[in-house]
Design brief:
Blueprint: E1 4-8, H1 23-32, E2 36-38, E3 41-45, E4 51-55, E5 59-62, E6 67-72, E7 75-79, H2 83-96, E8 99-102
Antiparallel strand pairs: 1-7, 1-8, 2-5, 3-4, 5-6, 6-7
């Protein structure tokens, strides 16, 4: 399943829908950030050769790292981000007047 980190305007990421970052805001941000690309899908190949595809309007990739940032219910989410990705997420959060929280509520 993995550990997720969330960009949200809310006091806790579980309350993101109460003060959402909108999909339109997210799309506008991605369009202005030269390091980001809106793909709306992600694909991976399993060790058995099968392709798994996930589609979601608002799924973007941070090009330098290949990390996907997914828009969900008023927040932006990354799975298992490394320190470099966390720094990028903090930078993105500043643009939205938001904060970065881990699954367990810890503030980054």
């Amino acid at each position: 399943m993995g550990y997720e980190v969330h960009i949200t305007r809310a006091r806790h990421w579980t309350e993101s829908e109460s003060v959402p970052i909108t999909l339109e805001e997210w799309k506008e941000y991605v369009a202005t950030d030269r390091e980001m690309r809106m793909d709306n899908f992600a694909e991976a190949t399993t060790s058995g050769g099968d392709t798994i595809r996930y589609e979601n309007e608002g799924l973007a990739v941070w090009i330098p790292s290949g990390c996907w940032l997914d828009f969900r219910r008023g927040r932006i989410v990354a799975k298992n981000p490394d320190e470099e990705t966390l720094a990028k997420m903090k930078s993105i959060a500043e643009q939205f007047g938001a904060r970065v929280f881990g699954d367990e509520g810890e503030l980054y």
